[in-house]
Specification:
The chain is mainly alpha-helical. 68% of the residues lie in helices and 1% in strands. Strands 1-2 form a two-stranded antiparallel ribbon. Helix 2 crosses helix 13 and helix 15 packs across helix 16. The N terminus is likely disordered.
Length: 419
């Protein structure tokens, strides 16, 4: 059920084609960028240097979360119009899945610190079960879509709401309730003193834009003419955005500077990132034309990544977190990469293991797991939420004073969970 809900809407028809290839290519590259970005953030202990810094910015702005969310909005209602009830159910499923993922990539790995750290810190770090990542954002986005669809807003109405939320969000950055858990929960909506990576107010605009673009894309009769006009315009705007942003020209600020300027990007940065999305879309269309012209459609690694993205996303995160905590920190059988070449080797290995594990799961376990989840949806949701609440209460009971996040170098009272 989890995988089905994450990938719902993937099969649709576009004049005989089962998928939109350029969208698939974007999603495939997004997964590659995610794995690289996560390995860089979790493993790398060397000097970042200009090359890695540029690469990280490219993954963030060009082929990162914004493009993924744009694709999420694009595929939303293709094939069939999703009802408010469907969006509500899907949103709750995604939220439960995010807690489930956080439990296995944070709560369980933190157990390795028992015996080497004060137990109070170990329990307090477990508040990471509330981390607001892209999966949690997707859940919140679908809950909002359920409301907006219930209000019968069309694509333009949804986009207008998204722009309004973006503007409101700018004035809510660094919200602090004085209560760590409240900050973590409010961080699902706006920027707070918590690990609020993808708050709804700042990132919903990309889902709404993808949803709006699909309305017109399906009506375009000559895709080639469209892209040949759109791509140069989008590329020019993207270049202007990147140049201004890299030089720190206001109001563009998400490319350089503190993490929050990207995670809680302002409305101008959001529109600049949307220009990047359209440029990326046009480039991927050119690539799709090349693939078809060379008749190499059977060699389709990017399409494979796109079609299996939900499962691969879950596997790569659990794998990366447990490699770091168990093999690097606890058992010390793997060294942390300290050069770009070593980091590349780790990325390739993680990606290969992710695909292998996912394929083994598909072959031997998926049918049984999906059947079980389908029959026990409510029970699974209750168990996941109960475990989440229990972990949060356990963390708070040990005197949680703050949420470890990028605001405080992932530390509590100066003690960091990382190196």
């Amino acid at each position: 059920m989890i995988t089905q809900n994450l990938s719902a809407g993937k099969n649709f028809s576009d004049k005989g084609r089962s998928r939109v290839m350029e969208i698939d290519f974007i999603k495939g590259f997004c997964l590659l960028a995610m794995v690289t970005e996560h390995c860089l953030g979790e493993f790398y202990m060397g000097e970042p240097g200009a090359g890695l810094s540029i690469l990280e910015n490219i993954f963030d702005v060009l082929i990162g979360a914004s493009a993924f969310m744009f694709c999420m909005g694009f595929t939303l209602d293709i094939g069939r119009i999703h009802t408010p009830q469907h969006c509500l159910k899907r949103g709750l499923t995604l939220l439960c899945t995010s807690f489930f993922l956080n439990f296995f990539r944070s709560t369980i790995p933190y157990l390795t610190f028992f015996g080497t750290m004060e137990s109070d810190y170990v329990f307090m770090w477990m508040i990471d079960i509330l981390i607001n990542d892209i999966l949690a954002f997707a859940g919140m986005a679908f809950l909002l879509l359920a409301l907006l669809k219930k209000l019968k807003l069309n694509a333009w109405g949804i986009f207008a709401v998204a722009v309004a939320l973006s503007v409101i969000g700018y004035f809510c950055r660094f919200t602090d309730t004085g209560m760590p858990v409240a900050n973590a929960l409010l961080g699902y909506l706006v920027g707070t003193k918590a690990e609020a990576e993808f708050p709804l107010f700042y990132w919903f605009i990309f889902v709404a834009a993808g949803n709006l673009f699909r309305e017109y894309y399906l009506k375009i009769k000559n895709k080639k003419k469209f892209y040949l006009i759109m791509l140069p315009v989008a590329a020019a705007l993207t270049t202007a955005f990147l140049v201004l942003g890299s030089k720190g020209v206001k109001p563009f600020e998400c490319i350089i500077g503190e993490t929050y300027k990207y995670a809680w990007m302002n409305t101008f940065d959001a529109f600049g990132s949307l220009c990047c999305c359209f440029t990326y879309l046009g480039v991927m269309w050119l690539l799709s034309q090349l693939v078809e012209k060379l008749h190499i459609t059977k060699f389709r690694p990017l399409s494979y990544l796109a079609e299996n993205l939900p499962g691969l996303y879950l596997v790569q995160w659990v794998l990366i977190a447990n490699v770091y905590f168990f093999l690097m920190r606890w058992l010390k059988v793997l060294p942390a990469p300290q050069t770009p070449i070593a980091l590349t080797a780790y990325v390739v290995c993680i990606l290969a293991l992710t695909v292998l594990i996912h394929e083994l799961y598909k072959k031997y376990c998926r049918a049984g797991v999906l059947k079980f989840l389908e029959k026990n949806q409510i029970l699974c949701a209750v168990v996941i939420l109960a475990v989440t609440v229990a972990v949060v209460l356990l963390s708070v009971s040990h005197g949680l004073p703050e949420i470890p996040s990028y605001h405080n170098d992932y530390a509590i009272n100066g003690v960091s969970v990382y190196y």
